[in-house]
Amino acid sequence: MDAFESILAELLEHDGYWVRKSVKVNLTKEEKVAIGRPSSPRWELDLVAYKGSTNELLVIECKSYLDSYGVRFSAFDGSSQRHAKRFKLFNDNLLREVVLNRLVLQLEASGFCASSPRVILCLAAGKVIRESDRNKIAEHFDRNGWVFWDDQWIRSRLKAVTKTSYEDSIAAMVSKLLLRE
User: Fold this and answer.
1) What CATH number is associated with residue 63?
2) What is the pLDDT of residue 166?
3) H-assigned helices in the chain
4) Whose C-alpha in 62, 85, 141, 175 is 20 to 30 A from the C-alpha of 152?
């Protein structure tokens, strides 16, 4: 797990979610065959966050891209297989359905969430290549019922943390150091 994921986890905890990092989804042999990956190891999710008061389960893919070009819309519109392969859950309907269903069953069985949570797929991206890509991604995610957190959202959440009292957390310290007025 990287610092980007740690900061996102803390931001979600500030919003009342419990957060687990690097969650392994134990697919059955039949499920692996169904998704065309019969020898696949356990599926791993960057972050999973649950809020009991709303019975909401967030499944979050984290891509910081801080030292690269940034996320681009071609990763989601079918125009670039190369870019799309980094976002399998967003681009493969069957895979998404199987993995998220198994995740819910796994969390319910272990008592980590109430039955039938509302599952929301999210992408947190520290950098977007162009403003036009940012808008297209946001529209695409809205149409699909997903959530897109870009660098602007992350910055605004970090700014909100600077207004809270002192906490010994990475998000609070980073935000207070970098985002002071």
Assistant:
1) 3.40.1350.10
2) 52
3) 3-14, 29-34, 81-84, 88-91, 93-109, 131-144, 151-162, 170-178
4) 85
